[in-house]
Design brief:
The chain has 234 residues and is α/β, with parallel strands linked by helices. It has 9 helices and 7 strands; from the N terminus they run βαααααβαβαβαββαβ.
């Protein structure tokens, strides 16, 4: 018999806050200012992983012949997207789940491929830092998602076994990282990631409001003990 679920590990971008929609919208705005269109399929490679996966300058040169560099483009894009992101609130169900987990005595962590200043800054703005025992970001590991390093470090620091934790994700890269670390992974797509293949997740929810913590824990515990299918979709 596997021990009960005692930990939740949250992704940040697109899971706690929908930072991904304004991110893509800002890139589209910038490309249009250069007289070009950015395709979703070109940008989405960086979702849930390193920004280096998106070669904005290279794509722009192919479309327009205009020479620039990624540092310049990313600096301007970040300036614009920060203004939009600072207006965002937690996605539906996030705060309620945090409260439920806190009341149940569970240990929580964030595991994000984004920079610490970005993640912690928003969590502080939203007054959510106190819920998490650890906030792990790209600075804490050598390799970000889809490598499992962030999740492996999270369970190590939380002092739990993989079967005692649930990973909450929204992107294929994040799901792959969680599954490789041995965690049961729940995918909650946002308006951006709903267009992607999230089928590697064990459970896909439309929103965190669909199930309460007890229901989630029961599903995962039954799965870990071999009493439910590997793939569940609500």
């Amino acid at each position: 018999m596997i021990s009960p679920i005692s930990a939740l590990i949250f992704d940040f971008d697109g899971l706690i806050m929908d930072t991904e929609s304004p991110e893509f919208e800002t890139w589209q705005e910038m490309f249009r200012e250069f007289g070009a269109e950015l395709k979703f399929e070109e940008w989405v490679a960086c979702l849930g992983t390193s920004a280096a996966a998106f070669d904005a300058a290279g794509i722009l040169y192919q479309r327009t012949g205009i020479t620039t560099d990624n540092h310049t483009l990313w600096t301007e894009q970040k300036r614009r997207s920060i203004q939009k992101a600072n207006q965002l609130q937690p996605l539906p169900g996030v705060v309620h789940l945090l409260e439920e987990a806190k009341s149940a005595g569970m240990v929580l962590a964030v595991a994000s491929s984004s920079p610490r200043a970005w993640v912690q800054g928003h969590l502080e703005r939203l007054d959510l830092c106190s819920y998490f025992r650890f906030i792990l970001t790209k600075e804490d590991v050598q390799t970000v998602k889809p490598a499992p390093d962030l999740y492996l470090k999270a369970i190590q620091m939380l002092q739990v076994e993989p079967a005692q934790a649930i990973a909450l994700e929204d992107s294929p890269n994040g799901i792959k990282a969680a599954r490789q670390a041995g965690l049961f992974c729940i995918a909650i797509p946002n308006p951006i990631s709903i267009r992607l293949d999230l089928s590697e997740a064990n459970l896909i929810l439309k929103s965190l409001t669909e199930l309460n913590l007890q229901q989630l824990a029961e599903i995962v515990t039954h799965h870990n003990n071999g009493h439910s299918p590997v793939k569940i979709k609500v």
